[in-house]
UniProtKB/TrEMBL annotation:
It is a multi-pass membrane protein. This is Threonine transporter RhtB. It comes from the Bacteria. It comes from Bordetella genomosp. 5. It holds the Pfam family LysE. Belongs to the Rht family.
Length: 209
């Protein structure tokens, strides 16, 4: 992989990472509910999900999702169900104000935040098909593939760490300004609806033949 090829992918990665989607919604929701320090753990799960997607593409399993209607549909609707479930839970969340970084026994554990982010990116065949379409354009088949995949995966993981960190921090800043239960209730409904909307959009996604 040449330097110019990597730079092109690096620039494209920023656009990919900052583009609105389920990951951005999840990052903002976590920042809103738990503040930046704890909410950012959700991003760790999102990154693990991206790396898992890259692994699927690298070993060729992504081609199965791209060509098998049954496999694609199964994974897609698992993702749809999970996003709608997260949305419903968000809407139903208690509207009591949350203290940022305070000891709240009801808030999600770090493991739960990481797993939530991982599942959001893992159960999204749209991401796999997207990587399957984009990544090969930056890979030189005449060169060893493993290091090229590692380089591309690391690049996208880095830009996503920054992008999701920005989303989480912005939401955490908003949280500090919310003091009344009605404000928290409104924000929970907004983010819950966004999760459900993301699930609906994923349900309408069709792979191109």
């Amino acid at each position: 992989m040449t330097l110019s090829t990597w730079l092109t992918f690096f620039v494209a990665s920023w656009a990919i990472s900052f583009s609105p989607g389920a990951g951005a919604i999840s990052a903002m929701s976590s920042g809103l509910k738990y503040g930046f320090a704890r909410g950012y753990w959700n991003t760790a799960g999102l990154i693990l999900g991206i790396l898992f997607q890259f692994l699927i593409v690298a070993v060729g399993l992504g081609a199965v999702l791209a060509t098998s209607e049954l496999a694609f549909t199964l994974v897609k609707y698992l993702g749809v169900a999970y996003l709608i479930y997260l949305g419903w839970r968000q809407i139903r969340t208690d509207a009591a104000p949350v203290a940022v970084d305070a000891g709240d026994p009801q808030r999600a554990s770090i493991r739960e935040l990481v797993m939530r982010g991982f599942l959001i990116n893992t159960m999204n065949p749209k991401g796999t098909v997207f990587l399957l379409a984009v990544v090969p354009q930056f890979v030189d088949p005449a060169q060893p593939l493993s290091m090229q995949y590692v380089t591309l995966a690391g690049t996208l993981a880095f830009t996503d760490l920054v992008a999701m960190g920005v989303y989480t921090l912005l939401a955490a800043k908003v949280l500090r300004m919310l003091r009344e239960a009605r404000h928290i209730r409104w924000m929970n409904r907004v983010f819950g609806s966004l999760f459900i909307l993301a699930g609906v959009f994923l349900a309408t996604f069709r792979r191109h033949s």
